[in-house]
Predict the structure.
Amino acid sequence: MSDSLYILGVVAATSCAAYAVGRRRGMRAGLLPLAVRRAIRLAGVCLLFWGGNVAVGVGVALLVRGLGLGFIWLYVNTDVSVLVLSAFQALIFEAWRTQHDLDRGRPTAGGGPGGSGES
């Protein structure tokens, strides 16, 4: 069995378990497509933050090198911690944006109280 197939199987199993727990707790299956859209939006915001963080990091590293202030390896900017921190940035930003939309009485992108999911 390939590693990719194994990982896909593990993720599928935990996803099915989460679905079963959610249904037992009374969560409606019809809300799942909305949740998927919101998750895709969040993944996109995460990638934007990650790309921005890598770009700024590379720029700073090159600036430090160019000014003769030291040497920073460029590969440091692709460390997994940058991706994890970018995910936290995205979570916080999206929570902030969603709360802003709710405070202004607008439906959130991807749906919200009384929202159609369209924006």
About this structure: Confidence is low (pLDDT under 50) at residues 113-119. The chain is about 70% helix and 0% strand. Residues 32-66 form the longest helix (35 residues).
